[in-house]
Amino acid sequence: MVDSKRVIPLESNPSIFNSLSNKLGLSPILQFHDVYSLTDSELLAFLPQPVYAIILLFPLTKNYEQYREQSDKGEHEYNNERFGDIKWFKQTIGNGCGLYALLHILANLPHDFIIDNLILNKCLLSQLSKDSSVKETANLVEQLERSIQLDSNYGTQGQTEAPDASESVDLHFITFVKGKDNHLYELDGRRAGPIDLGVSTKENHILDDTKLTEKIQFYMDNADDENKHNFAMMAIGPSLD
């Protein structure tokens, strides 16, 4: 992948993702929340329900990169043939995985949650069609990033010192969200296309879907000892405000 631009990577921080999603056009009735466990019922009880999507931050280890390359090997060239069920964007902005993870949620939420006259709908969603190529949709995301100026407005908002945009980071954001076909999808702009995990067993609250928890646990189990704790999760659900 050749990056046409590089940005400062976003921190896994609900306040940053809430600020950016509101700027883009997400309704204030939804917001991001930290997820501290997939299995602890007491911790999960604090999450507002239903959870519509999950963002996972995980380490790009040697084991993972081998798994990714092997899994995508031999896959046909994806060209938005599942457009009616799921929206996926190829990542062409270096270190921009946080933005892509967010857009993979916002583009696949019911449109009632998106404010029509704001930038997401005007500059991206309204421009998409079943005839849009992967390259065309990638260009639209690049134009959107230029409009919101990710670095100057969001790249340095975190609680830790932000790396330079030129640095390559070994942490990566991906999204888990339901498509219109009621399938659970793993969406990662570095992969060959959307990854269909199968029919979702739950109406809305995807944290109850074992396919989700098993896939995230798979990534955790395959991390080396040095990276066992380099994971973070955020969920999007009803706002607490």
| CATH fold name | Ubiquitin C-terminal Hydrolase UCH-l3
* CATH hierarchy: architecture: 3-Layer(aba) Sandwich
**Biggest beta-sheet profile:** 6 strands, antiparallel
N-to-C CA distance: 40 Å
Q: How do the strands and helices of this protein lay out in sequence?
A:
Elements: E1 5-6, H1 14-24, E2 30-35, H2 41-44, E3 53-59, H3 62-72, E4 93-94, H4 97-106, H5 119-123, H6 134-148, H7 150-155, E5 171-178, E6 183-187, E7 195-199, H8 210-221, E8 232-238
Parallel strand pairs: 1-4
Antiparallel strand pairs: 2-8, 3-5, 3-8, 5-6, 6-7
Describe the fold and architecture:
The chain has 241 residues and is α+β, with helices and mostly antiparallel strands. It has one domain (14-238): Peptidase C12, ubiquitin carboxyl-terminal hydrolase (Ubiquitin C-terminal Hydrolase UCH-l3, 3-Layer(aba) Sandwich). 31% of the residues lie in helices and 17% in strands. It is built from eight helices and eight strands. A six-stranded antiparallel sheet has the order 2-8-3-5-6-7, sandwiched between helices. A two-stranded parallel sheet has the order 1-4. Strand 6 and strand 7 form a beta hairpin. The longest helix is centred in the middle third of the chain and has 15 residues, at 134-148. The chain is globular. The record marks 188 as: Important for enzyme activity. The active site is at 97 (nucleophile), 172 (proton donor). Belongs to the peptidase C12 family. This is Ubiquitin carboxyl-terminal hydrolase. GO terms for molecular function: cysteine-type deubiquitinase activity.
